[in-house]
């Protein structure tokens, strides 16, 4: 079990935040003692799926389930559009973002409109704008550490973007993707995943890891269409004091 002082969230959420990771083999009694001793205004608990004993205990101590976090793994050996979207193939391309495009993407992220299913956006204590600012700060931090922004174009117009960072020599984390607001509701959501997969392929990566929320079933289905496999699931619970 890990207890994390998420100091970076003070900038994002305005309060001290504690995060706890409860793994499959962790002791239940230890979790109960730890949760009882937490006094931060906001805390997040992640519990390995299958540990319903820990899930029930946490709810007795005031934690509420807000989502399941689903870990996915994909490969870049044959990156191609799913069959249902193959008709778009001749009109779609991907490249790394220019400086101007990077500025536009960061503005898009900060607005928060693409985070309707994010746990911060869904939390009555916060909002989509808070979620947007949180992802904006996170993306800026990752870019400073070498993450890459990619843009997917539809008929030469920027349609979607993705953000990736290297985890080791051949594994990359596709930690964020979205659609430009002017392209929303046009059935192009599949391009955000494609942007990340192509970007990782262009960087020489062969393995992709990412996480999606159970609150966003359409994006989960899209990943499955691209050949992603489920690697793990975690209950995510929150508590405000």
Written account of the structure:
The chain has 241 residues and is an alpha+beta fold. 33% of the residues lie in helices and 33% in strands. The longest helix is centred in the middle third of the chain and has 17 residues, at 128-144. A 10-stranded mixed beta sheet has the order 1-2-3-10-4-9-8-7-6-5, sandwiched between helices. It has 8 helices and 10 strands. β8, α7 and β9 (207-213) form a beta-alpha-beta unit.
> Uncertain spans, ≥5 residues at pLDDT below 50?
none
Helix content: 25-40%
Shape: globular
Count of DSSP-assigned helices: 8
Please, what is the oligomeric state? single chain
Radius of gyration: 19 Å
Strand content: 25-35%
Instruction: Walk across the major sheet and give the strand order.
Output: 1-2-3-10-4-9-8-7-6-5
Average pLDDT score: 96
Q: Which sequence of SSEs, written as H and E, runs from N to C?
A: EHEHEHEEHHHEEEHEHE
Per DSSP E runs of 2 or more residues, the count of β-strands stands at 10
Q: Report the end-to-end length measured between terminal Cα atoms.
A: 22 Å
Largest sheet: 10 strands, mixed
Descriptive key words:
ten-stranded mixed sheet; 33% helix; 8 helices
At a glance:
The protein has 241 residues and is of the alpha+beta class. The protein has eight helices and ten strands.
Which helices and strands occur, and which strands form pairs?
Blueprint: E1 2-5, H1 9-13, E2 17-22, H2 28-36, E3 42-48, H3 52-60, E4 64-75, E5 92-96, H4 99-111, H5 119-122, H6 128-144, E6 148-154, E7 157-166, E8 171-179, H7 190-202, E9 207-213, H8 217-225, E10 229-240
Helix pairs in contact: 2-3, 4-6
């Amino acid at each position: 079990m890990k207890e994390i002082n998420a100091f970076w969230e003070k900038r994002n959420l305005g309060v001290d935040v504690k995060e706890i990771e409860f793994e499959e083999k962790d002791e239940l009694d230890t979790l109960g003692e730890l949760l009882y001793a937490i006094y931060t205004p906001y805390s997040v608990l992640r519990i390995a799926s299958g540990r319903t004993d820990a899930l029930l205990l946490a709810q007795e101590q005031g934690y509420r389930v807000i989502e399941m976090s689903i870990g996915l793994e994909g490969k870049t050996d044959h990156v191609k559009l799913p069959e249902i979207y193959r008709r778009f193939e001749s009109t779609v391309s991907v490249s790394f973002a220019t400086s101007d495009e990077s500025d536009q993407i960061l503005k898009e992220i900060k607005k928060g409109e693409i985070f309707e299913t994010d746990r911060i956006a869904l939390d009555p204590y916060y909002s989509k704008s808070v979620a947007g600012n949180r992802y904006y700060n996170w993306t800026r931090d990752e870019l400073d550490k070498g993450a890459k922004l990619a843009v997917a174009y539809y008929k030469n117009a920027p349609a979607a973007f993705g953000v990736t960072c290297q985890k080791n020599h051949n594994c990359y984390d596709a930690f964020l993707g979205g659609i430009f607001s002017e392209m929303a509701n046009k059935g192009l959501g599949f391009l955000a995943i494609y942007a990340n997969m192509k970007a990782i392929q262009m960087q020489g990566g062969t393995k992709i890891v990412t996480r999606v929320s159970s609150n966003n079933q359409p994006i989960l289905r899209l990943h499955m269409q691209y050949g992603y496999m489920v690697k793990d699931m975690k209950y995510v619970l929150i508590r405000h004091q």
